[in-house]
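Sanity check

After download, print the first record. It should look like this:
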Amino acid sequence: MKEENWNRNTEIVTLFLEEAEDTQHKAVVMQTITIGNEANDDDMRTVYWTAIRNMGKAIEGFPSFGGKPSSLTPEQEHNVSTVCAVVQTAFATIPTEHHETLLKVFLPHGRTGGSYANWDAYIENEVRIAKRNMMTAKKEGRWDLLDMSEDGVPQITAPAEKEVEAEE
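Expected structure tokens:
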């Protein structure tokens, strides 16, 4: 693993772990990052990175690193992940006795049709929508993915309301 990729990825993991619950897995990942920082070549960084990813699987919400590298900074990645986790937690705290009713009245949008398979599928969709909205806000210049309140609320400017032409 190239040193540039190592630095970027471990910064994302470190930001995530700063807020994660203290566990043995967290301690091992943090120690592996420390050891990996001293690696002298790409091959050894790859070995340490593989260990970090494998150990990270045991930590809920651990960042994933598949596919094309992100164009976001580690801080932006961290903020998006944090907000997605808050959205997921908020929906997960809705009492079970309300799930059936909500699944009957909130349906997938568009051509999908049908209904959500279960409550987890509904939550997954809401998290996907939240992430899409954050990325759209970035693209439209309404949020830089960095501006957060002290309470961790993203400071996103709402899109402008569409003007309605008055009928005469």
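If your output differs, re-run the checksum step. Summary of this record's structure: The mean pLDDT is 90.
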